[in-house]
Amino acid sequence: MREVLSTLLAVWRTGGTAGLGTVVRTFRSAPRPPGAAMVVTPDGTVSGSVSGGCVEGAVYDVASEVLATGIPVLQRYGVSDDAAFEVGLTCGGILDVFVEPVSQSTFGQLDAIAADIDAHRPVAVATVIAHPDAAWVGRRLVVRRDPGDGPVDGALGSPRADAAVTDDARGLLAAGRSEVLTYGPDGQRRGEGMEVFVASHAPRPRMLVFGAIDFAAAVAQQGAFLGYRVTVCDARPVFATSARFPTADEVVVDWPHRYLAAQAAAGAIDARTVICVLTHDPKFDVPLLEVALRLPEHARAAYIGAMGSRRTHEDRLDRLREAGLTEAELAGLSSPIGLDLGGRTPEETAVSIAAEIVARRWGGGGRPLAETGGRIHHELGNGSRSRRVK
């Protein structure tokens, strides 16, 4: 919903009603993940995408019907490879799309959710997408990560269902996952009949780029393109300026190791954070990597890469060993940084770094798809199947 939120809010704030189609579940090679959304405004304008163009026309028709009837619909697209062209999903995947009317009367919490997202406050929206009692469908709970963050807003239909879904939604929000959960009609853990889509709106993951060099500008641009909240940090104020890094969300003048340690202590580093060390200068690199490679478990970054030639890499490893780092700790370092694409320019190098980050995130091997077999899209806990959270 994040990518269509401005369009949705514009209609909501004028008192109008928009049709919102959200991908809630995918199987096989569906092109968009759970949470991808498309909005149809009252004048027929479309914003967003649920399939990259494959079934948008069909979803548009359903959204128009929902706007007319006010009744939400759960629709499945894609049956098999043979029938995919008939339903419009040419990749042969399967996706479930929940289409609902959104207005101030049906979704009164939308403005508060938008404020949470804008302020980088984690918030989850749990919506009933299937239930034996049609009156439950479309009801929702807005859940913050911790009970102290504020009361749960909304109701599903019974205290038992509210309690079960609230507990599970907080677990998904902490993990940054969006998926469908299945319960009995009254929220029973071992039952079936009620399906709830939990959309987790966690803050954007962070990319920390250390070293205010030309390569850093290109890496920051790639990071922003991939959806990261990008910080560029360097101890030299003459280089670390917003004018040199217009795509970065923030530019910090500080010693890299000191800044990273402070961010970790403040709880601002997590398992989605990626760290790119581009200084290739021992006086910056070694103390910074000492901190990065020894972050505690709860603050351990998803990726730590360091730029430099192979000679620089070997010298850096020797210095880190002298500083007391173990081989197990050094194994967490990707150096030289990036995949072997043969690039030379800062922009080409940034693409190779981004490619390694994406491959690390999803378990890709970095080989040309033409040389591989099997599934194209990797499934690593992306919510492609219904499950319960314990």
UniProtKB/TrEMBL annotation:
UniProt-annotated stretches for the region Disordered: 368-390
Record's protein name: XshC-Cox1 family protein
Occurrences of domain XdhC- CoxI (ranges): 12-78, 118-184
Originating organism: Mycobacterium dioxanotrophicus
PANTHER family: ALDEHYDE OXIDOREDUCTASE MOLYBDENUM COFACTOR ASSEMBLY PROTEIN, MOLYBDENUM COFACTOR INSERTION CHAPERONE PAOD
Domain XdhC Rossmann residue range list: 207-357
Pfam families in alphabetical order: XdhC_C, XdhC_CoxI
